[in-house]
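Figure 2 data, in text form.
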Amino acid sequence: MGQLEKSTVNIRPLALKDKEDVFRLFSFLRTGEPIPFEAELFVNDPNWHCLILENENGLAIGFAALHVHSTPSKGRISRIEDVVVDGAFQGRGYGKLLMEKLLEIAKKEKVNYIELTSKKIRTAARKFYESYGFQVRESDIYRLNL
């Protein structure tokens, strides 16, 4: 990993003005047809903690989200979604800054655990998550497209 340039970036909550920047950042994650990013659904929802990482010029170069909710059998839990850093800024420790902020929020929210998913092909991302203690579970994820 490259040298961390923490002093040149800022992490802040998602704002409506970030809609196009986040859509651009998602191009580093998606493999299929793009889905419009509806920032308004996340900005005002207290269960979502969406973060923008911006550089010294105010350019959004990273995004990460934490969804906190409760279930009857598991209590208060959370899920990390869409951790992404612009390809031109990867390898500088910015993903680590985002992850540490998400973990800080999860602890503040007193969640019992955090879940996330990562495709097997994303080996670097999987190693990154494992470095924080995340473990692959013996569970398959089911999806029904509507």
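Caption note: The chain has one domain: 6-130.
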